Amino acid sequence: MIGGVLLEIVAVGLVVVGVAFLLAGTIGLVRFPDVYTRAHAASKCDSAGAGSVLLGLALHDGFAFGDLKLVLLAILVVVSGPTTAHALARAAMRSGRRAWTRDERGPA
Amino acid sequence: MRTFALALVLVVAATMVIGIAGLPPHGDPDGPVHTHVGARYLEQGVAETGLRNLVTAVLLVYRGFDTFLEVVVIFTALVAVLALPSATRQPPPPRGEGAAASRREADDAVPVSPVVFLVVRLLAPFIAVFALASLYRGHVTPGGGFQSAAIIGAMMIALGLVFGREHAARLVPHGAKAWLQALGPLVFAAVAFVGWRLTGAFLGFPADEAAYALREAMVVVLEVAIAVGGAVILAQLFMALDAPS
């Protein structure tokens, strides 16, 4: 019984952490100055945010066989999210976007 | 300006919250969703159509004409895009010919990121299996031709981005390309006429138990045509939009 309560605490904790990352990532996406910092913020939503929420949901109500789907989904977002951020940042770099710096207030 | 924006956000948010509060509870059996045609579908659907998946039953039997036209709409979108001059015409040699040529060479010379290459290669087989599973399982669970089309189309686009457009184009046999693009509307029309011969109604499906195999075959043929035709159209749309203009 205690194990169940502990599992529940971990599950809810993971979801809360995930939601916090999603919120921070979304704020960053809106507020950050250039494409690189925005890609950085947005990729936090995918990997840390959605990943933790999915893992938390998998542990919620105990771990059943069907929860493997959620784990697979978590792996998928953890693989695909950073790849997308990488491709975006690389494309921006290739097309000559300069990174924002404090001195230059580069291209916003 | 900030105050105005904030006020606007608050007004819109309040309207939405009030609207959501007025919705019937989720799953309420007396909600409008469940008291009109929905109840009829749920109570009579299996008996009337003989299909076990009510989503398929609504899509192909109760609203068959709607689905037929949806398939035609996707096809029409492709025709419209291909009819645009820039989609088919080679880019005219602009002034400063050398500059443009070198720019295009530079575009082609950008190597594909090894990370993206690896991840797309890694995921593509899973995406393909997922598309097939979605198509196959669409009979009895959520999924079906349209979803499968979106998944296969996305896979073809991703492969096209990584391996280059020439390689991706080889996924669709050149001779069969036009037929594959029109596969959805053509097969839908064919099945509709078969249904006419069998039941006396255009797009009719024989609903009696004896016609089980025939009915399932008609549905499978339709779903496969929607999936393959839709995927080819999606990929082709992307390639056309991607073409240098």
Short account of what is shown:
The complex is a heterodimer of chains A (108) and B (245). Chain A is mostly helical and 108 residues long.
Task: Give your account of this protein's structure.
The complex is a heterodimer of chains A (108) and B (245). Chain A is mostly helical and 108 residues long. Chain A is built from three helices and no strands. Chain A has helices spanning 2-31, 35-59, 67-94. Chain A starts with a helix and ends in a 14-residue tail after the last helix. Chain B starts with a helix and ends with a helix. The model of chain B has no long low-confidence stretch (mean pLDDT 83). With 245 residues, chain B is mainly α. The chains are: A mainly alpha (108), B mainly alpha (245). Chains A and B meet through helix 3 of A and helix 8 of B.
Strand coverage percent of chain B: under 5%
SSE sequence of chain A, one letter per element: HHH
Total count of strands of chain B: 0
> Total helix count of chain B?
13
Total DSSP E strands of chain A: 0
User: Based on helices, strands and strand pairing, what is the structural class of chain B?
Assistant: mainly alpha
- Largest interface (CB < 8 Å): A-B, 8 and 7 residues
Average pLDDT confidence of chain B is 83
Quaternary status: heterodimer
The Cα radius of gyration of chain B reads: 24 Å
Q: Estimate the helix proportion of chain A, in percent.
A: over 70%
How far apart the termini of chain A lie comes to 54 Å
Main sheet: strands, sense, barrel of chain B: none
How would a textbook summarize the main sheet of chain A?
none
Uncertain stretches of chain B: none
How is the secondary structure organized here?
The complex is a heterodimer of chains A (108) and B (245).
Chain A: H1 2-31, H2 35-59, H3 67-94
Chain B: H1 2-21, H2 32-35, H3 37-49, H4 54-62, H5 64-83, H6 85-88, H7 97-109, H8 114-137, H9 145-163, H10 165-169, H11 177-181, H12 183-199, H13 212-242
